[in-house]
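dumping this here before i forget
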Amino acid sequence: MTDLTLYAGLDVHKKTIAVALVDAAAQAEVRFYGTIVNTPEAVRRLCRKLSQDGRPLHFCYEAGPCGYGVQRHLSRLGHRCDVVAPALIPRKAGDKVKTDRRDAMMLAQTLRAEALCDRLKQAIAELVPQWSLAPVVQAIQALRGVSLVVAAVIVAEVGSFGRFDNPRQLMAYLGLNPSEHSSGATIRRGPITKTGNALARTCLVEAAWTYRFPARVTQIIRDRMKDLPEPIRNVAWKAQVRLSARYRKLTAAGKPAPKVVVAIARELVGFIWAIARMVEPKFA
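structure:
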């Protein structure tokens, strides 16, 4: 179903509110609507005008000294409004220009992007069960940090795990092996090669951050594993124990956290390979 929601970013001040709008479609351009006075009647007129064709409205603005007055008023009018923490709004590095117009447009764009992510996740959840590799996607979710989206991305980008005779080949394919510059008896190893599939590698590194916490089976993981066979559960628990301990060991040795996480991601590939080979369809 097509999303007809109109997303609005508000830059709220004591006397004025800058308004930017964007349609739900991914290709839609953000447009600056204008600036209105910060009064209940002005906000009511804005909502009446924007929703005159029956479209649902979704507003957001940054938390600040103006409080939740605008949010409460919009809620009473029957519209959704989110008040977001300024620290959670993405900013481009080196961006030194800040205006009410730009802030409102950034809020509208970010709000629409969060909604697009939700729709994409829903689409993935609906399509995966129809996929021949659905058993692999389900099985590797037993691993901590490997959500449905991460699992689907890794399986889609790798394809057949049977192409790789051992985990090291898969690690190299994903660009997680250390680079090497050696000559004669001198061996020098550097950062990871970053060859191969960047999207899968990014997902693996994001998943690896979860191993900074002690090993434990959360309710989320328990729900993922309830229909999985015991051997897969055992591998997943072994991965938790080993990778969490390895994270603590490497950080205690003074290694920077980003490098430690990359090392964890590399080992996580081995457990993914082991589980995938257990359930991968023979024809894949």
